[in-house]
Amino acid sequence: MRILITGGAGFLGSHLADRLLAEGHSVIAMDNLITGNTDNIQHLIGRPDFTFIRHDVTNYIYISGHLDAVLHFASPASPIDYLKYPIQTLKVGALGTHNALGLALAKRARFLLASTSEVYGDPLVHPQREDYTGNVNTIGPRGVYDEAKRFAEALTMAYHRSHGVDTRIVRIFNTYGERMRLDDGRVVPNFIGQALRGEPLTVHGDGTQTRSFCYVSDLIEGIYRLLMLPPSEDASLPVNLGNPLEMSILEFAQIINEMTGNRGGIEFRYKDRIEGDPQTRQPDITRARNLLGYEPVVGLREGLARTIEYFRARVGVTANPSKHAE
Ligand code: UDP
């Protein structure tokens, strides 16, 4: 298959590119690089089956030749990033999704939307199943991301129902691994960066809020299976993907300090907790299990060990740029 990945230089987009290329497909990665980075795809540049195009998908997307699939992964995805780029976040969810769907329609290609657990907002149902319609504050700081993705899902279903486009929607829960940006503000790179520098881990609030962390290769496996599923009405409905192993942020901080041998401890930062920060989050993956035979297989400590190794090299560079320059 010839596949376009928007956000192809991002954390998930680049891992997806690796997987698709390994399966023998050819990949066009598109990215405007506001939160993506070509370092993530450097190893692919020069391959005949890989192309990178720098482009902002909120503008018309032109691709010559046929396409078999369009995977729409472009968007700022960490709270810090979408607070920094609120209008771009809304535009890529709305205009970017429209352009990507229009392209899929024109090329008769399959379309897969990277949606998010944020469509459930600060959930009142636990764990979250796909039929839960969510609890989102439209005008809160996270609203720019949540509503953009909710609109993107609505538009995807509209193209499916009105134009017959073969569409897929994956609701991605917290995922971590190599190629996350050290400074993207999310809890995994933040805590690991702090731990490797010997600093206290900054727990927002009292740390009782929960998350469920999925290692990137497990997520990519689920996305690949969803993409390859034969077309059906069921395949077009949203699917949660993530790892249901849930823990409090405080517990998570303790694990990071233990695994890195950090003596910096923990610092509670009540003021840093962003309004509307979900108190709980855990995917119900029953649908993914039944539809895709999906099951996460990488344990938390195993995935974290790999991620810590990845960040270890980068913390050295970031923490001491003068040394790096020498
Ligand atoms: N968090 C934290 N300290 C940090 C960064 C994040 O305690 O340095 C908390 C944050 O308040 C949230 C959870 O960790 O409750 C997960 O945050 P993240 O930004 O990774 O993503 P989210 O799941 O909120 O989209």
What report would you give on this structure?
It is a single chain. With 326 residues, this protein is of the alpha/beta class. The strands form 4 sheets. It has a 7-stranded parallel β-sheet, with helices on both faces. A two-stranded parallel sheet has the order 7-10. The protein has a two-stranded parallel ribbon with strand order 8-13. The protein is globular, with a radius of gyration of 19 Å. It folds into 2 domains: 2-174 and 216-241, NAD(P)-binding Rossmann-like Domain (Rossmann fold), CATH 3.40.50.720; 176-212 and 244-283 and 298-317, UDP-galactose 4-epimerase, domain 1 (Alpha-Beta Complex), CATH 3.90.25. The model is unreliable at 319-326 (pLDDT under 50). Helix 5 crosses helix 9 and helix 7 (249-260) crosses helix 9. Helix 4 links the parallel strand 5 (110-116) and strand 6. The chain has helices at 11-22, 79-84, 86-107, 143-163, 187-196, 216-228, 249-260, 286-292, 300-319, 321-325, and strands at 2-6, 26-31, 50-54, 69-72, 110-116, 167-172, 175-176, 201-204, 210-212, 214-215, 239-241, 246-248, 266-269. It is 39% helix and 17% strand. The longest helix is centred in the first third of the chain and has 22 residues, at 86-107. The structure holds uridine-5'-diphosphate. Uridine-5'-diphosphate (UDP) binds next to helix 5 and strand 8.
Overview in brief:
39% of the residues lie in helices and 17% in strands.
Blueprint of the fold:
Elements: E1 2-6, H1 11-22, E2 26-31, E3 50-54, E4 69-72, H2 79-84, H3 86-107, E5 110-116, H4 143-163, E6 167-172, E7 175-176, H5 187-196, E8 201-204, E9 210-212, E10 214-215, H6 216-228, E11 239-241, E12 246-248, H7 249-260, E13 266-269, H8 286-292, H9 300-319, H10 321-325
Parallel strand pairs: 1-2, 1-4, 2-3, 4-5, 5-6, 6-11, 7-10, 8-13
Antiparallel strand pairs: 9-12
The structure holds uridine-5'-diphosphate.
